[in-house]
Amino acid sequence: MGSPVFSKSSAFSPNADRSQGGASAYQGQSAQAQYGQPAGYGQSAGYGSVPDAATLGSMYGAPSATTAQTGRLTYDDVIIKTVGLLAIVIAFAAITWFTVPELFFVGAIVGLVLGLVNAFKREPSPVLIVAYAIAEGVFVGGLSAYFEAAWDGIVLQAVVATFATFTACLFLFRSGRVRVTPRFTRWLLFSMVGYMAFSLINLVVILAGGAEGWGLRSGWFGIAIGLVAVGLASASLIVDFDSIQRGVRNGVPAKFAWTAAFGLVVTLIWLYIEFLRILAIFQSD
């Protein structure tokens, strides 16, 4: 379990059938039917003509079709769409920061609704995913403006920490130093459920007026909880990378690059917010 986006999508499931991707299974069967089985008695191979030796040689010597040519998911698709969504988030964050930062609450609500809708959709919707990026841009921009006004330089620190963590997680995953196993996934699931429960309790305490400022997350305890949250978000990134790798290997349709990019953006925004909160608590104390 990484981002809920991947856990809800059967395309990135560990048991995903290659036939779901369409391209790999279908083409393998088609190739076998054309070249792996002899033509029946009285029938000619192909469309009524028997290919000569030169034609067969060129057919077998031709390079294999790439994943892009067969309409399957590629890492390039995921990278391009992820960068595009992040560009949208940053653009609308900047607009909100310099114009109406008070709209961050609206962006948070709209982003939450669109996030849930996109997470539970079986088929990716580029329009809804882009709309989510816009809403999150409004939320992140307004919230960042508030934090920057209170603690000068905190936004840049959070951005650097976020992308440094992303790079470290990608290196750990690609190097094989961290492997996504069933035990790792179960640990992450239970830990995230516990963190969500704590966050809800903390929100209730703040709304009820039982605590001021950060609620139960004040002081060094709040910093410790923030570091735990960063650890969970980092583990989620690694699981996200594993899900994307599985999707590429399973040959799922290229349209699921939108799902993968959306999942990565969700986790990156979560990571950025956690770094903002940790830095703010630390500087407040």
From TrEMBL:
UniProt organism field: Sanguibacter antarcticus
Which portions of the chain have biased composition (kind: Low complexity)? 19-30
* Regions that span the bilayer: 78-97, 103-120, 127-147, 153-173, 185-208, 220-239, 260-282
- Which residues fall in a compositionally biased region of kind Polar residues? 1-18
Alphabetical keyword list = Membrane, Transmembrane, Transmembrane helix
Q: What is this protein called?
A: Putative YccA/Bax inhibitor family protein
Source domain of life is Bacteria
Q: Where is this region: Disordered?
A: 1-30
